[in-house]
Amino acid sequence: MSDIAEEMIKEGLLLHHPTGYGTQVSLNSQKKGEIDRIIKEVLGGEPEVNDN
Predict the structure, then answer these.
(1) What is the pLDDT of residues 1-52, one digit of tens each?
(2) What does the buried/exposed string (b/e) look like for 4-37 if buried means 16 or more CB atoms within 10 Å of the residue's CB?
């Protein structure tokens, strides 16, 4: 796992789920606002959000 992913897990932005084949990660939906802010800051502009 990358250092960035490990840091995001520590910050609670990613959730990790141990599996039989390794570690699966997902975005923490409770941190959606913070994740959107980071994306906007890094990429510029408004992040496109699909709530499906």
Answers:
(1) 789 999 999 999 999 998 999 889 999 999 999 999 998 999 987 656 676 6
(2) eeeebbeeebbeeeeeeeeeeeeebeebeeebee
Is 27 part of any domain?
yes
Q: Residue 11's domain spans which residues?
A: 3-43
- For 44, other C-beta atoms within 10 Å of its C-beta total 8
Bridge-partner residues for 19, per DSSP?
22
> Does residue 17 belong to any structural domain of this protein?
yes
Q: What is the 8-class DSSP label of residue 35?
A: H
